[in-house]
UniProtKB/TrEMBL annotation:
Part of the 50S ribosomal subunit. This is Large ribosomal subunit protein uL22c. GO terms for cellular component: chloroplast; large ribosomal subunit. One of its GO terms (molecular function) is structural constituent of ribosome. Pfam families: Ribosomal_L22. InterPro entries: Ribosomal_uL22, Ribosomal_uL22_bac/chlpt-type, Ribosomal_uL22_bac/org-type, Ribosomal_uL22_CS, Ribosomal_uL22_sf. Keywords: Chloroplast, Plastid, Ribonucleoprotein, Ribosomal protein, RNA-binding, rRNA-binding. It is found in: Plastid, Chloroplast. The keyword Secreted does not apply.
Length: 161
């Protein structure tokens, strides 16, 4: 009896010295972490932040690496790791009054994106494991089964203070 063991192959893309603060890039990265590749591209296209464009290029590049080099299926790619680290601050001098100068620091950041091909069964099973290990993650909202009529006729969501 032979067992076939699938390796969890990952593809990545790294962008260094991107001219923006790490805090602004993290705001966008937090929205796409753990999502499918195509879904994250749609999110990045529609968000109004300046950080979306370099992150979009990195996600697209990582997926292109996986599709071209390893033959991954585009529809099954998931962002498993997305992190932003602070880079070196580029320093400039700005002239001020009376011949003085003022130091301006422009922050940079390093963004890394890691993708992995995942089957649908594996994705559902991983969700099951996170819910079973952390019962606090379950949605305990009592009004989650309310219909449109229930929301407005019973006072619904706006009745609470």
């Amino acid at each position: 009896m032979t067992r076939i063991i699938k390796k969890k192959v990952r593809v990545s893309a790294l962008g260094q010295h991107i001219c923006m603060s790490a805090h602004k890039a993290r705001r966008v990265i937090d929205q796409i972490r753990g999502r499918f590749y195509e879904e994250s591209l749609m999110i990045l296209e529609l968000m109004p932040y300046r950080a979306c464009y370099p992150i979009f290029k990195l996600v697209y590049s990582a997926a292109a690496n996986g599709i071209h080099n390893l033959g991954f299926n585009e529809a099954r790619l998931v962002i498993i790791k997305a992190e932003v680290n602070e880079g070196t601050a580029s320093k400039r001098l700005k002239p001020r009054a009376r011949g003085r100068s003022y130091l301006i620091k422009r922050p940079t950041c390093h963004i890394s994106i890691v993708l992995r091909e995942i089957s649908l069964d594996e994705y559902v099973y991983s969700d099951y494991l996170t819910y079973s290990k952390n019962p606090g993650l379950r949605n305990t909202n009592k009004n989650k089964n309310m219909t449109y009529d229930d929301t407005y006729s019973s006072g619904g969501l706006w009745d609470k203070k």
